[in-house]
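User: quick one, fold this
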Amino acid sequence: MIVDLVRNDLGRVAAVGSVEVPSLCAVEEHPGLVHLVSTVRRQARAGRGLAGAVRRRLSPPGSVTGAPKSSLCASSMSSNQHPAARTVGAVGWVDADRGRAALAVGIRTFWISGSEIRFGTGAGITWGSDPRREWLETELKAARLIRLASTGGN
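Assistant:
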């Protein structure tokens, strides 16, 4: 589902027929967790710059908002439940000379607010989700982030 949401987002700013998924659910091992990672690529539509595509069409990404990405989407509904705005940034690199970039949705990231280190975490809630299991997943993610922030990852 997440890959389809990303394909849809990129398809809105891609040359027709250029969206591809060269890697689907590849296993990446990281300290304390195993993560499934998919790669979705596209060729830019003629006359479209990267900055505009990211700002107007890809932010926030469908992999975060859910579908449909409209005024009634999960992102809008969840904004009523959160005391602070939810923001998502891209992490990656851009080679403007060659017109290439590799970007990922910044999840499980830290930010500084005054004298505090903060982070956000959550789970992918769908119609068929088990609320208890989603909460346990969120706690598992948060526990790892708390450990990293308080001990430097040891």
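User: anything notable?
Assistant: The mean pLDDT is 77.
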